[in-house]
Amino acid sequence: MEPIHSDVSHVIITEAEIRSRVAELGARISEDYAGESVLLIAVLRGAALFVADLSRQISTPVELDFMAVSSYGSSTKSSGVVRILKDLDEGIEGRHVLVVEDILDTGLTLKYLLKNLASRKPKTLDVVTLLSKQGKQRVPIDCKYVGFEVPDEFVVGYGLDYDERYRNLPYIGVLKPEVYAD
Ligand code: PRP
């Protein structure tokens, strides 16, 4: 096993646990959408790694599209105002849409995205998130598939960053506080 990054205090979800859970989620999605085509919409950038692995565990036909969003100003997590930096390349009307997120925190990003996507009249609209932060949601989001519940700590790895770093760690770990303390 590889040594953990020196900026990470401890690993909360190992690479093997992620692999196994992603396979389970893929199997459930394959069953639920059997015989149908599903459009996975990954929310950049954090969900890029998850969607790459998840899509390969789905046996029903899959199409991929991507959105990039950002909040106005610096109060990213509290304003609830989301700006679309990159929109979908194609329309979603009448399609089975599954939004792929790396982490559900306050729920504000997904609340905005789901409302925006629903207005485009997909046939179905659901969410798969790898992680969901316990007790943090300010708005209730109905996630059809959740990989893991995680504590309210600064988690990085497998797509999740701090200042654009650590996305490539193969596990989910908790960042040492001294790394992000001023
Ligand atoms: C993260 C994550 C979600 C959002 C969740 O994205 O990927 O999109 O925050 O937070 P919320 O539930 O409080 O809205 P981030 O803004 O860190 O961008 P990134 O994916 O590019 O890292």
Indicate the structural class. alpha/beta
Count of beta strands: 9
What string, H for helix and E for strand, traces the elements in order?
EHEHEHEEHEEEEH
| Count of runs of 4 or more consecutive helical residues | 5
Question: What keywords describe this structure?
Answer:
182 residues, 5 helices, binds 1-O-pyrophosphono-5-O-phosphono-alpha-D-ribofuranose, alpha/beta
Describe what you observe in this structure:
The protein is α/β, with parallel strands linked by helices. It contains five helices and nine strands. Helix 1 (15-32) packs across helix 2 (48-55). The longest helix has 18 residues, at 15-32. It has helices at 15-32, 48-55, 76-79, 108-118, 177-180, and strands spanning 8-13, 38-44, 62-71, 82-86, 96-104, 124-133, 145-150, 155-156, 172-175. The site of 1-O-pyrophosphono-5-O-phosphono-alpha-D-ribofuranose has 16 residues, from strand 2, helix 3, strand 5 and helix 4. Residues 43-46, 76-77, 101-109, 161 line the site of 1-O-pyrophosphono-5-O-phosphono-alpha-D-ribofuranose.
What's the gist of this structure?
The protein has 182 residues and is of the alpha/beta class.
Helix-strand blueprint:
Blueprint: E1 8-13, H1 15-32, E2 38-44, H2 48-55, E3 62-71, H3 76-79, E4 82-86, E5 96-104, H4 108-118, E6 124-133, E7 145-150, E8 155-156, E9 172-175, H5 177-180
Parallel strand pairs: 2-3, 2-5, 5-6, 6-7
Antiparallel strand pairs: 1-9, 3-4, 8-9
Helix pairs in contact: 1-2
The structure holds 1-O-pyrophosphono-5-O-phosphono-alpha-D-ribofuranose.
